[in-house]
């Protein structure tokens, strides 16, 4: 009975243009990898969403490992962006499955959390895979120092050769 | 300075050509090509590391490369001249031994001592020319690049890219050219 009710509401919503039907997503993402720039890892996901039923101004929410973040929309077009940070220790190199929910999906997710139901039962509108390579502080010797050392070694060898000729 | 005279004998002109400071056409071309190439290397460095766009700074890069190439080529010329005489002196015995070994006994008796000496001198000059050019190019390039790395990435690290490029290129090439004018006696 409850399922029938949900289906009928969804049909109404799709028909009225509040629900996105068969979304096509074009996404890109950035994750910080340089430990010298900050101790927390930063993630940014940008996406363009096109619905088959041409729904505009979707209100979206992103779910990353059980934590929800609001998704901001650009004033023009269907461009969306979500960003979050996580402590470096809690974000090793991994593949994140970022799930995106519309309003109804978000409400269902909240309800599932309230009644201690498994959140995986709530189907997302779409999901985006974000590959995080992990953060590192790089090599302990700077590259210009290595270049200078190599150049100095070559110059030393050449100077020796030249001195042997001139002497 | 002695007045120029065009009354040199053929031998004297050959001697001047071999032991003078002036370069042959071929040597000049080799030096200028090497100098342009070495002066163009920092463009990649400034483009990739200092984030200087090639098209936006094209005029500056062209002027800087030509300026640097001129002084590097000057350093090549001076270093080569200084090294050639020393190399010729060092290789003298070896070249004489090589030529004597190549010539058979009958051949050695046929040609005069003067011609033998001329052959040795010519061969010695050829070897000294090639070796001095290579050593001069190697030495000048390594000096120029080490000065450039030091100035661009250490001394003037905090400068913005454009002044960094100007100071590094002008400084490195000028100092390289200046140091080549010194002579050891």
TrEMBL record, chain B:
Its main localization is endoplasmic reticulum
Localization recorded for this chain is: Endoplasmic reticulum membrane
UniProt xrefs under Pfam families: TRAP-gamma (PF07074)
Q: Which InterPro entries match?
A: SSR3 (IPR009779)
> Which residue ranges traverse the bilayer?
29-46, 58-76, 136-156
The domain of life is: Eukaryota
UniProt GO cellular component terms? endoplasmic reticulum; endoplasmic reticulum membrane
What are the UniProt keywords, alphabetically?
A: Endoplasmic reticulum, Membrane, Transmembrane, Transmembrane helix
Q: How does it sit in the membrane?
A: Multi-pass membrane protein
A GO biological process held by the record: SRP-dependent cotranslational protein targeting to membrane
Q: Which family does it belong to?
A: Belongs to the TRAP-gamma family.
Q: Sum up the protein's function in the record's words.
A: TRAP proteins are part of a complex whose function is to bind calcium to the ER membrane and thereby regulate the retention of ER resident proteins.
Which protein are we looking at?
Translocon-associated protein subunit gamma
* Species this chain originates from: Ciona intestinalis (Transparent sea squirt)
């Amino acid at each position: 009975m409850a399922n029938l009710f949900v289906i009928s509401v969804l049909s109404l919503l799709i028909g009225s243009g509040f629900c996105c039907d068969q979304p096509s997503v074009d996404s890109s993402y950035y994750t910080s990898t340089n430990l010298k720039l900050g101790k927390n890892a930063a993630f940014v996901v940008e996406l363009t969403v096109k619905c088959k039923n041409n729904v505009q101004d979707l209100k979206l929410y992103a779910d990353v490992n059980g934590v929800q973040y609001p998704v901001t929309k650009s004033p023009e077009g269907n461009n969306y962006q979500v960003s979050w940070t996580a402590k470096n220790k809690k974000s090793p190199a991994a593949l994140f499955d970022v799930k995106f929910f519309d309003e109804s999906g978000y409400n269902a997710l909240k309800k599932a959390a309230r009644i201690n139901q498994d959140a995986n039962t709530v189907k997302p509108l779409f999901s985006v895979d974000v590959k995080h390579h992990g953060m590192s502080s790089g090599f302990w010797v700077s590259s210009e120092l290595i270049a200078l050392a190599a150049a100095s070694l070559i110059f030393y060898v050449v100077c020796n050769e030249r001195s042997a000729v001139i002497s | 300075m002695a007045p120029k005279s065009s009354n040199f004998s053929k031998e004297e002109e050959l001697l001047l050509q071999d032991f003078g400071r002036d370069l042959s056409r071929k040597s000049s071309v080799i030096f200028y090509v090497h100098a342009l190439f070495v002066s163009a290397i920092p463009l990649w460095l400034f483009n990739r590391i200092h984030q200087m766009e090639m098209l936006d700074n094209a005029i500056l890069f062209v002027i800087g490369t030509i300026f640097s190439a001129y002084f590097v080529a000057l350093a090549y010329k001076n270093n080569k001249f200084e090294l050639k005489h020393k190399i010729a002196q060092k290789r003298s015995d070896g070249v004489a031994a090589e030529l004597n070994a190549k010539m058979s006994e009958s051949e050695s008796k046929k040609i005069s001592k003067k011609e033998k000496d001329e052959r040795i001198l010519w061969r010695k000059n050829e070897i000294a020319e090639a070796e001095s050019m290579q050593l001069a190019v190697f030495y000048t390039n390594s000096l120029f690049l080490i000065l450039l790395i030091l100035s661009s990435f250490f001394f003037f690290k905090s400068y913005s890219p454009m002044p960094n490029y100007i100071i590094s290129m002008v400084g490195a090439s000028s100092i390289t050219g200046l140091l080549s004018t010194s002579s050891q006696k």
